[in-house]
Write a structure and sequence with these properties.
195 residues; alpha/beta; Rossmann fold; 7-stranded mixed β-sheet; peptidyl-tRNA hydrolase activity; EC 3.1.1.29; tRNA binding; Pept_tRNA_hydro
Length: 195
């Protein structure tokens, strides 16, 4: 593993104002907050259909390349793999931040690899990277109420009740992503998965 390679933090979401506050766009929200924390600004990358921000996590911390693919969710893998190649980032230094139907709202969990759980952004990343062995920061959004179609549910904005906690949870998800990059997935799991 190349010591100088940055961590690629891929916030999954859909581009455009109409999607900005959707449950499916929580990856973008987390990427925006991390960029703000490290004093980095997003700009269009010349080698990928993505907005990218670069910076270092604290003094002497890991270098981060924050990514918001500008393709739609189901094509997120293209920009992710293009940037992984450009920055020479191995899969074990890629972190996908995404919404997760199978985790209750309010819970954030870190893991490496595993299935995609029907998430088109993860499916595209795994296919493009040729591996599922990258880190994920899973932001629980819970299952849709009643018989609502999960595809509609993820493309709706967070409810008024959910929005009361959203800022705190995005902050926590950013903490988890930073912990994965600086201390590893296992450390982040021990610190955050239980709560």
């Amino acid at each position: 593993m190349e010591a100088t390679a940055p961590f690629l933090v891929v916030g999954l979401g859909n581009p455009g104002k109409e999607y900005a506050k959707n449950r499916h766009n929580v990856g973008f929200m987390v990427a925006d907050l991390i960029a703000e924390r490290i004093g980095a600004k997003f700009g269009r990358h010349r080698r990928a259909v993505a907005d990218v921000a670069e910076g270092r996590l604290g003094f002497g911390g890991p270098r981060l390349v924050l990514v918001k693919p500008l393709t739609y969710m189901n094509l997120s893998g293209g920009p992710a793999v293009a940037l992984a190649q450009f920055y020479k980032v191995p899969p074990e230094q890629i972190i996908a931040v995404h919404d997760e139907l199978d985790i209750p709202y309010g819970q954030i969990r870190a893991k490496i690899g595993g299935g995609e759980g029907g998430h088109n952004g993860l499916r595209s990343m795994s296919k493009s990277l040729g591996t599922k062995d990258y880190a994920r920061v899973r932001f629980g959004i819970g299952r849709p109420p009643g018989r609502q179609d999960p595809a509609d549910y993820v493309l709706n904005d967070f409810s008024a009740a959910e929005r009361k906690e959203l800022e705190f949870l995005v902050d926590r998800a950013a903490d988890v992503a930073e912990a994965v990059s600086s201390k590893g997935v296992e450390w982040a799991q021990n610190a955050y998965n239980g709560s």
